[in-house]
């Protein structure tokens, strides 16, 4: 950890050292001439020298091509009209959409994936001095990172582990843009579009799985019902009076349905007695 911090400090101070470098004889002559012109045209020149940056902005001043100090702002700062130029840098969080990328997954499935990235400028000097266009470079890097990360995942992992994939992308982007003064705060996977044929196959597979579960549940219900009927028959066999009560319960149920014809089941024992009496 200490090695990383020691290696990163010179990068951050490199541009500060440039501001302290000597301008040379010609440079100092031009600076002195600029001051003389300001004094000669005072107070009109003061409106050309005083600049303002807002609370969320920073100004990087270049004096004869060299960075003068660090980032200025917010508020007022002074710039010579002839020798100084400045660039404003927005320090607010910026978001951009990653265009849909056609990606071949690890299990050879082609999908279209898009996302969104949130980042902000952490070091205005590095964002100006180390990269031509920090925003454009971050966008291109995000597209490449999305393809590289998802190319190592299976389709099932892409569909189920979006948060893990987004976090992996965020860490990778943050490490890559550190030298640009960019802090990647958040990455989100927005949508994963599958081919139509694959969607149909997955829908058929899901439907088959549901039907299989329904059949298993129905079979378990039949098995439980048969066990209950077996236990009931054993109870009725042990007690003939229970069979009579079951007959009466059946008649009550039939009568409640207002049927015109009612079949009255006679006990088997009674029928045996009648048959033996006739014989």
Shape, per Cα inertia axes: rod-shaped
- Overall average residue pLDDT: 77
CATH class of the largest domain: Alpha Beta
SS elements, strand count: 8
Order of helices and strands: HHHEEEEEEEHHHHEHHH
Would you identify the CATH architecture of the largest domain?
A: 2-Layer Sandwich
Overall structural domain count: 4
Strand content: 15-25%
Describe this structure in words.
With 279 residues, the chain is α+β, with helices and mostly antiparallel strands. It has 4 domains: 2-89, no CATH class; 94-194, Band 7 domain (Tetrahydropterin Synthase, Chain A, 2-Layer Sandwich); 197-238; 239-279, no CATH class. Helix content is 56%, strand content 21%. The protein has a 3-stranded antiparallel sheet with strand order 3-2-5. A hairpin with a 5-residue loop joins β6 (94-104) and β7 (110-121). α5 crosses α7 (162-176) and α8 packs across α9 (240-256). It is rod-shaped and about 145 Å long. This is Stomatin. The chain crosses the membrane at residues 21-48. Keywords: Membrane, Transmembrane, Transmembrane helix.
Which descriptors would you attach to this protein?
3-stranded antiparallel β-sheet, disordered N terminus, RNA polymerase binding, Stomatin_HflK_fam, 56% helix, 4 domains, 8 strands, alpha+beta, protein homodimerization activity, 279 residues, Tetrahydropterin Synthase, Chain A
Offer a concise description of the structure.
By secondary structure, this protein is an alpha+beta fold. It has 10 helices and 8 strands.
């Amino acid at each position: 950890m200490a090695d990383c911090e020691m290696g990163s400090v010179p990068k951050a101070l490199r541009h500060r050292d440039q501001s302290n470098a000597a301008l040379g004889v010609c440079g100092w002559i031009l600076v002195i001439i600029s001051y003389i012109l300001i004094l000669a045209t005072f107070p009109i020149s003061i409106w050309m020298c005083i600049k303002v940056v807002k609370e969320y902005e920073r100004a990087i001043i270049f004096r004869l091509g060299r960075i003068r100090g660090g980032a200025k702002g917010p508020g007022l700062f002074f710039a010579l009209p002839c020798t100084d130029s400045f660039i404003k840098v927005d320090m607010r969080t910026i978001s951009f959409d990653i265009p849909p990328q056609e990606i071949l997954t690890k299990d050879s499935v082609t999908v279209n994936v898009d996302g969104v990235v949130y980042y902000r400028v952490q070091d205005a000097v590095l964002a100006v001095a180390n990269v031509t266009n920090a925003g454009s470079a971050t966008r291109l890097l995000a597209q490449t990172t999305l393809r590289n990360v998802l190319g190592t995942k299976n389709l099932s992992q892409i569909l189920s582990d979006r948060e893990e994939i987004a976090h992996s992308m965020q860490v990778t982007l943050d490490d890559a843009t550190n030298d640009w003064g960019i802090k990647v705060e958040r990455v989100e996977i927005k949508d994963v579009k599958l081919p139509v044929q694959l969607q149909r196959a997955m829908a058929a597979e899901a439907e088959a799985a549901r039907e299989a579960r329904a059949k298993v549940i129905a079979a378990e219900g039949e098995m439980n019902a048969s066990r209950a009927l077996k236990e009931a028959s054993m109870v009725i066999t042990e007690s003939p009076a229970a069979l009579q009560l079951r007959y009466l319960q059946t008649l009550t149920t039939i009568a409640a349905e207002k049927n015109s014809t009612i079949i009255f089941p006679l006990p088997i024992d009674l029928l045996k007695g009648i048959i033996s009496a006739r014989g």
